[in-house]
Amino acid sequence: MLKEFKDFIAKGNVMDMAVGIIIGAAFTAIVKSMVADLINPIIGLFMGGVDFTNRFVVLGGGDATYASLEAAREAGAGAFAYGAFIMAVINFLIIAFVVFMLVRMVNKAKDAAAKEEEAVVEEAAPAGPSEIDLLTEIRDSLAAK
């Protein structure tokens, strides 16, 4: 059973998947930081510092008012946090756009590399006589005999 487990782990697909998950987690941290630390402040600057995170409605008929969503949650009040959901949707759209742009750049780089490789392969092809030239030469040599 231990040997089977070693064989399973050593297979390329499992290792590729593990590397993909690790790289994906690191990439997620980079993209989240880019959105939270670079893009959201710029958007907030243009929108006058609008932040929907603290938009909420207290559920349960209580007359208490809370300064923030965090204060309402600490007090144990039921809160319908629609602002946090709106911010999550906005962040998702920004992250999706950033990932789209990164994938687009990678695909362009791959296409450029593939075109360069094709050009090298075409240049390296030997320039000998074509099949028709060879057949014509054979026919002419047989006709001359």
Please state the structural category: mainly alpha
| Rg over CA atoms | 32 Å
Low-pLDDT segments, ≥5 res: none
Give the total of beta strands: 2
- By DSSP (H or I, 4+ residues per run), the number of helices equals 5
Q: What's the structural domain tally?
A: 2
In angstroms, what separates the terminal alpha carbons?
75 Å
Strand content: under 5%
Q: What share of the residues lie within helices?
A: over 70%
SSE pattern: HHEHEHH
Largest sheet: 2 strands, antiparallel
Give the overall shape, derived from the CA principal axes. elongated
Mean pLDDT, all residues? 81
Strand order of the largest sheet: 1-2
Question: Summary?
Answer:
The chain is mainly α and 145 residues long. It has 5 helices and 2 strands.
